[in-house]
Design brief:
Number of domains: 1
Strand content: under 5%
Low-confidence stretches: none
Strand order of the largest sheet: 1-2
Radius of gyration: 23 Å
Helix content: 55-70%
Length: 557
């Protein structure tokens, strides 16, 4: 039996269908934020609700509903959980070897002894660099752990990481979300990327200041605002100019500019630092060149290896070769049975099993190399970490993340049931009924899609076509709304259950998701409101010549 999702499945009403469709998502956040239910139970309860609504409300065949959940489970394990395990293992090698103290000393030097300056650079620029290269949870897992290493309290490290990561998510993993939104929305991805690069600076320039507020309130802003402004301007410039050329590298270039500008600026400027945020390197334990290299090795190595796998085109296209190893699996019970309005099977039911193209594989490779390097260079020193013990850290990592793994798997199952049954699409369709006001509301779709699925790419896959269709019906520029959907997706990732679970695992505090959510939800909603206002202004043509002309871009193929 085939099944076609309908946006008016309940009572023939789009609005009523949307109100029922959003129940599982509301249940998750209410249980998590208001009742402090453990995250994995929130996910299991919400998944159960979504299955019941899919079968009895949206008339989805029972077998297909459960099959959709299993496809979500599969995607949860590969690539997402795989990446998280690899990233946390890589970090744990630094901790187990004792080289985390050296890492703190390095950042102490760069940040002029101010932990807040160090945290700002790591949470915003270094996290953005990893997001641009890898995405899919790896940046959050690595950076949150690094922030704990330099001395931040775990919850503060988690909050800083998810907020600092948000603005680069739309350009993450070589800008896959942009490419997805453009192609599915019928607009050139280069055009969508350029529009994004013209809009994101309005937010990117202020986010470093927000991070300072989260770090140490108004005192941090008063004492470190020049550094925040320098990083914000450099990152914004990177977004603006790179998005008009090789848009795939936008987050990478922008973050490198942020890192370089902060380093140069701190050579000539020293912040005023309160005692509780001052880190002091021990003079009797001064770093040697080798110790510096080995402390930075895990993070430098992972950036170099992933950059090579994604960017190397000389002679051979490494990314293309690695993607050729992906295994496309038409998902049993769903593919061929889940069809669109024209009766055509949806390609969303084809699971892409990533092997060599998965960033997790190369983070694993980096970890093995680091384990061997630490075993070799640490022998007979206080940093001694035998290779076997380093490899055993992988098993410890999996055990420590067991509840996070369960939660992510359940959340991804929830996302797929909501997506395939039409629950998520019905919410988007209800918002699209608002006509010209949709210019203000369109970023909410991207925010919602990522909040549900944990992926800005998934948000584009869900809503890009709907955004373009609604834009044409309301005589709004489709490219602007597609850009809004993708940027909004990054802001939605701040509160995504999947993202919260990843960061809770990275700081080794499973169950801390409700506390993190309460701290970051107002920020996510505040940034979303700012984006909605900006997009409304852009959709009405009030930004004039500031926005590019769509006619100057080649049509989408």
């Amino acid at each position: 039996m085939t099944f076609t999702p309908h946006i008016d499945a309940i009572g023939g009403s789009v609005v009523l269908t949307a109100l029922v469709g959003i129940i599982p998502l509301l249940a998750f956040f209410v249980l998590l934020g208001a009742f402090k239910i453990k995250t994995h139970w929130c996910a299991i309860i919400s998944l159960t609700l979504s299955l019941l609504i899919a079968v009895f409300g949206f008339s989805m065949p029972t077998v297909m509903a459960f099959s959709a959940a299993t496809q979500g489970l599969a995607l949860g394990f590969v690539p997402i959980i795989y990446i998280i395990i690899a990233a946390v293992w890589l970090y744990s090698l630094t901790e187990a070897s004792g080289r985390s103290d050296d890492l703190r000393a390095i950042f102490n030097s760069v940040g002029k002894g101010d932990v807040r300056a160090q945290a700002l650079i790591i949470a915003f620029s270094f996290c953005g660099l990893l997001e641009g290269l890898a995405g899919f949870g790896a940046p959050v897992a690595i950076v949150a752990a690094m922030l704990v290493t330099i001395g931040l309290k775990p919850i503060k490290a988690a909050v800083l990481t998810v907020v600092g990561n948000a603005i680069n998510v739309g350009f993450g993993a070589m800008a896959i979300p942009v490419t997805t939104a453009g192609k599915l929305g019928g607009q050139p991805p280069t055009y969508v990327a350029t529009l994004m690069g013209h809009l994101t600076p309005f937010l990117a320039i202020f986010i470093p200041l927000i991070l300072l507020l989260l770090l140490d309130g108004t005192r941090a802003v008063k004492q470190l605002w020049p550094l925040a402004i320098v990083i914000g301007i450099a990152t914004s410039a990177g977004h603006y100019f790179t998005s008009m050329g090789s848009y795939e590298l936008t987050a990478v270039v922008a973050s490198l500019l942020g890192l370089a500008s902060s380093y140069i600026f701190l050579l000539v400027w020293t912040p005023k630092t309160p005692d509780e945020y001052r880190s002091v390197a021990e003079k009797e334990n001064a770093l040697t060149r080798e110790r510096t290299i080995l402390a930075l090795a895990p993070y430098v190595l992972v950036v170099v290896i992933i950059a090579f796998t994604k960017l190397w085109k000389v002679g051979i296209d490494v990314d293309k070769i690695l993607k050729a190893t992906d295994i496309k699996i038409p998902w049993p019970g769903v593919y061929g049975y889940l069809v669109d309005a024209s009766g055509k099977p949806t390609n969303a039911a084809i699971y892409n099993f990533q092997t060599l193209s998965n960033p997790g594989t190369w983070i694993m490779v980096s970890a093995v190399i680091v384990a061997a390097l630490y075993a070799w260079r640490g022998k007979g020193t206080k940093f001694e970490l035998p290779f076997g013990k380093g490899m055993a850290q992988l098993l410890h990592t999996i055990y420590d993340l067991r509840l996070s793994i369960l939660t992510i798997a359940m959340v991804m199952a929830l996302a797929y049931v909501m997506n395939f049954s039409g629950q998520t699409t019905s919410i988007g369709a209800a918002l699209a009924l608002t006509g010209s006001a949709f210019g203000f509301l369109s970023p909410i779709l991207g925010w919602l899609g990522t909040a549900v699925a944990g992926s800005a790419t998934s948000a584009g896959a869900l809503f890009a076509n709907l955004q373009a269709t609604a834009a044409n019906a309301a005589h709004l520029p489709p490219g602007v709304l597609l850009a809004a959907n993708t940027i909004g997706g990054g802001l939605g990732k701040i509160v995504s259950p999947q993202n919260l679970t990843v960061v809770a695992g990275a700081i080794n505090k499973p169950g801390s998701e409700p506390e993190v959510l309460r701290k970051v939800a107002p920020i996510s909603l505040g940034l979303l409101l700012a984006l909605c206002t900006l997009v409304f202004i852009a959709s009405q043509g009030w930004l004039g010549v500031y926005l590019p002309d769509p006619a100057s871009f080649a049509p989408v193929k």
